[in-house]
Design goal:
The protein has 91 residues and is α+β, with helices and mostly antiparallel strands. It has one domain (20-89). It has helices spanning 17-20, 31-39, 53-58; strands at 7-8, 10-12, 15-16, 23-24, 46-51, 63-66, 69-72, 76-77, 83-89. Strands 4-7-6 form a 3-stranded antiparallel β-sheet. It has a two-stranded antiparallel ribbon with strand order 1-8.
Length: 91
């Protein structure tokens, strides 16, 4: 997990925010599908990170919705005001 630094800037696995232009995110209902699709080949534990969209926007980072999926339009502050780690996802 990236709690050791101030901002998370990975768009999706292997792609930087600066290249893609946004950070991929999902809703609570889409977590299992996204984890299987993007990280299903890994044996490492994954954390379910919950983002407070309103707190994120108060930090000046906008979120847009495309086809029902959120896109974070800037660096994600690794602040307890914005995010919290819920639990390890089953592997």
């Amino acid at each position: 997990m990236s709690r050791g630094f101030g901002e998370y800037v990975v768009s999706t696995r292997g792609e930087h925010l600066d290249v893609v232009g946004f950070i991929h995110a999902t809703t609570a209902e889409g977590v299992a599908e996204a984890a299987a699709k993007r990280y299903g080949d890994l044996s490492l534990p994954l954390l379910d990170i919950v983002i407070d969209v309103e707190a994120l926007q108060r930090e000046g980072v906008e979120v847009e919705w495309v086809d029902g999926a959120p896109r974070i339009l800037g660096a994600l502050p690794m602040s307890p005001k914005v995010i919290r780690a819920e639990a390890l996802l089953p592997r």
